[in-house]
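Before going further, learn to read the protein records used in this course. The integers have meaning only within a learned vocabulary of local backbone shapes. To see the layout at work, look at the sequence and tokens printed below.
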Amino acid sequence: MFPEGHPRARFAPLLLVLTFLSGLVDAASFLGLGRVFVANMTGNVVFLGFALSGVAQLSALASAVALTGFLAGAVAGGAWRRDAEPGRLFAPLLAVQALLVALALAAQGAGWGRYAVLVPLACGMGLQNAVVHRLGVPDLTTTVMTRTLTGLAADRPGPATVRRGLSVATLAAGALSGGLLHARAGVEAVLVAALVLSLAVVLAARHRR
């Protein structure tokens, strides 16, 4: 199921949890913060183009802010202790992401406006993607599914097929759960769930290390 022999394959189950988390936070941002993504940057780039064209009711500013926050988080995650073994950085960097999710939750609860919620969420997802990129576990990017779906369709069935299928299904399940939770209890409930998952991943990663 998971890549045998890969030096950091032990993190694969946690990466699936982070994939579910990505679906959750994108549900919160798209449904509750004005049709913008904080994890799926491919979608944001397209939304930015749509918004600038003036043919859709989308906010170019919101997409640009999300992209900027994501890139800031990715830069920080890539630069911090660049020469360190990535597995040792997994728990500390994701602990920072959990703090950013907590900040977004506090901003939502205090009514500080969507950008006060959007920025820490996007920064956290950029940080998560940088950590996952540094780990380099095959087929478990936690957010980007285009290449995963291509491999699923184009390659012969094998162990990678299971990983790819699980990754796609987990992201969809996170988005579904986030959508249902948002419909019943609002953005704050989705962010609470995201925070709980973030903390659980951090604790599990510390135990695995």
